[in-house]
């Protein structure tokens, strides 16, 4: 089994398990109470360089690649010209978390 197949298999299992404690009704409630999303396309209307910086703390091929500090990482990227952030949420292979999106959105 190659690495992509392993990621898919683990993700399917994780999503199956999460359905036991995070119901569809809960997800609907969360989204209904969320703030309005940013207009992502509007971020890229200028003629300058537009960079989407990726917040990722591990990779399947390299293992750990950075300290797990999503707020510090987001701040550094934004202060140094990132137009937008890509925040990896997959926990097993990339050390991500859905919480990282919540934490970053609360602060920036």
Describe the structure.
The chain is mainly alpha-helical and 108 residues long. A hairpin with a 3-residue loop joins strand 2 and strand 3 (63-64). It is built from five helices and four strands. The strands form two sheets. The protein has a two-stranded parallel sheet. The protein has a two-stranded antiparallel sheet with strand order 2-3. The model has no long low-confidence stretch (mean pLDDT 91). The longest helix has 16 residues, at 3-18.
Summary tags:
single chain, 108 residues, mainly alpha, two-stranded parallel ribbon, two-stranded antiparallel sheet, 4 strands, 45% helix, 11% strand
Element string (H = helix, E = strand): HHEEEHEHH
Which strand order spans the largest sheet, edge to edge or round the barrel? 1-4
What is the SS-derived class? mainly alpha
* First and last CA, distance: 40 Å
Question: What's a quick, concise take on this entry?
Answer:
The protein has helices at residues 3-18, 24-32, 70-79, 91-94, 98-107; strands at 52-55, 58-59, 63-64, 84-87. The protein is mainly α and 108 residues long. Strands 1-4 form a two-stranded parallel sheet.
